[in-house]
Automatic annotation (TrEMBL):
NCBIfam families: GTPase_EngA, small_GTP. Belongs to the TRAFAC class TrmE-Era-EngA-EngB-Septin-like GTPase superfamily. EngA (Der) GTPase family. GTPase that plays an essential role in the late steps of ribosome biogenesis. InterPro entries: G_ENGA, GTP-bd, GTPase_Der, KH_dom-like, KH_dom-like_a/b, P-loop_NTPase, Small_GTP-bd. GO terms for biological process: ribosome biogenesis. The lineage of its organism: Bacteria, Pseudomonadati, Elusimicrobiota, Endomicrobiia, Endomicrobiales. GTP 2 binds at residues 181-188, 228-232, 293-296. GO terms for molecular function: GTP binding; ribosome binding. The gene is der. CDD domains: EngA1 (cd01894), EngA2 (cd01895). GTP 1 binds at residues 9-16, 56-60, 118-121. Associates with the 50S ribosomal subunit. This is GTPase Der.
């Protein structure tokens, strides 16, 4: 297993900004509202030939809100399971009583800790941070997460504290799976069940998950990065900027994913929101598995399965290549099958045809169904697969204005009938053919 580095500290000291800086991109939501981060968020980082997992955590809160107890529990677990703790404090505000309490908790766990004095924007400001040595930590780094100051020094400090390179040598890239769906359909419960621990705070208040949350897990001897997302809501305008940032974070997470799991609630079926999310996934050209969660609550399962399958094919016709799986995050029913299906779908997403294979199916399609419009015949002069993830096929034709959507669909169906492309979108592009001049 890789070395685990946990970022801890009280709310609003810049933990998520530091997390984003360490991983090299904006993944965690940053906002001046305390408590924006509620769950633990994992990401793999490589630095000078060593790899480690960095974990962003909820702020240590003395608040009595409905979430604060869960947040503190998540923090305790993060410290317990970490190898190195980055204890982040606010260099501009000075030592806070909560900082003293967190320092005591870290020492009780007997973890290797690095004190990270954040918001030190210049060398002249470093003198402000000296008072934090009273917390009892010898290793201290003065940084500015927002401006990137001394981040390389911090990475070097982490590198020094990795006793040996515990890099996992995989024969494949870690598959990144994203869970998408409207609030309260069971995305967080899904992660908690497969991770075999409470990685996400689960609550019946919609919107509990504000950020996109990535968790590294093992299933059947293979490693996956499973991403829980803030629920996407109906309508184009967010209610507030927190919801907007959540939706934006989800959008970034979709871009980064290898496979998407669209989750619907068995008690509600496939509605407008699911259709909206399906269209977004199609726009992003992502392979998709549709799951109907909370299947344990359904009594007449055979009839319900038939109903949901028909509903999927009717309301999401544009994604008729996606399979539907009936699951229960609560009981774990068919969750292992999700990973098996994700492996299969990703192989289809990555498929590359040989020139001979592609030529054969297109020649056969043209022989079976030539296309004529307004007295003119569509002629495919040249064609080839030009990309995978998703599979992209380019056709040079005598006149692309002759390409009707029905004939495009016919060619797509021919490719799927011959080669499968199970669970993945495929892209067909048409351009006018110009004869090359010598």
């Amino acid at each position: 297993m890789l070395t685990k580095v946990a970022i801890v500290g009280r709310p609003n000291v810049g933990k998520s900004a530091l997390f984003n800086r360490l991983i090299g991109r904006k993944k965690a939501i940053t906002h001046e509202m305390p408590g924006t981060t509620r769950d633990r968020n994992d990401h793999k980082v490589s630095w000078r030939d060593k790899n480690f997992i960095v974990t962003d955590t909820a702020g240590w809160s003395m608040d009595i809100s409905v979430f604060s107890k869960d947040m503190s529990h998540q923090l305790d677990i993060a410290i317990e399971k970490s190898d190195i703790v980055l204890f982040v404090v606010d260099g501009k505000m000075g030592v806070h009583p909560t900082d003293v309490q967190i320092a005591q908790q870290i020492r009780l766990k007997r973890k290797k800790a690095v004190l990270v004095v954040n918001k030190i924007d210049t060398q002249a400001e470093e003198i402000k941070g000296y008072e934090f040595y009273e917390l009892g930590f010898d290793d201290a780094v003065f940084v500015s997460a927002n401006h990137g100051r001394s981040i390389h020094d911090l990475l070097d400090k982490i590198w020094e504290n990795i006793k040996y390179d515990r890099k996992v040598k995989n024969t494949r890239e870690t598959l990144k799976i994203i869970l998408v769906g409207k609030p309260n359909v069971g995305k967080s419960s899904f992660i908690n069940t497969v991770a075999k621990e409470e990685r996400c705070i689960v609550h019946d208040i919609p919107g509990t998950t504000r950020d996109s949350l990535a968790v590294c897990i093992q299933n059947n001897g293979k490693e996956y990065i499973l991403t829980d997302t803030a629920g996407l809501h109906r309508g184009s305008k967010p209610k507030d900027d927190m919801e907007y940032l959540s939706n934006l974070s989800t959008d970034y997470a979709i871009e980064d994913a290898d496979v998407a799991i669209l989750i619907a609630d068995a008690s509600q079926g496939i509605g407008e929101t699911e259709v909206k999310i399906a269209r977004l996934l199609l726009e992003k050209k992502k392979p998709v598995i549709v799951t109907i969660n909370k299947w344990d609550l359904i009594e007449e399962k055979e009839e319900a399965a038939k109903y949901f399958t028909e509903q999927l094919r009717e309301r999401i016709k544009f994604m008729n290549w996606a399979d539907i799986i009936f699951t229960s995050a609560k009981t774990g029913q068919r969750l292992d099958r999700i990973f098996q299906e994700a492996e299969l779908v990703f192989k289809q997403y990555s498929k590359e045809l040989t020139k001979e294979e592609f030529n054969e199916v297109i020649r056969d399609a043209l022989a079976r169904k030539p296309y004529t419009s307004k007295g003119r015949t569509l002629k495919l002069k040249e064609y080839a697969q030009t990309a995978s993830k998703p599979p992209v096929f380019i056709f040079s034709v005598n006149d692309r204005n002759l390409v009707h959507f029905s004939y495009k669909r016919f060619l797509e169906n021919c490719l799927r009938a011959k080669f499968g492309f199970h669970g993945t979108p495929i892209v067909l592009k048409f351009r006018n053919y110009y004869k090359k001049m010598n």
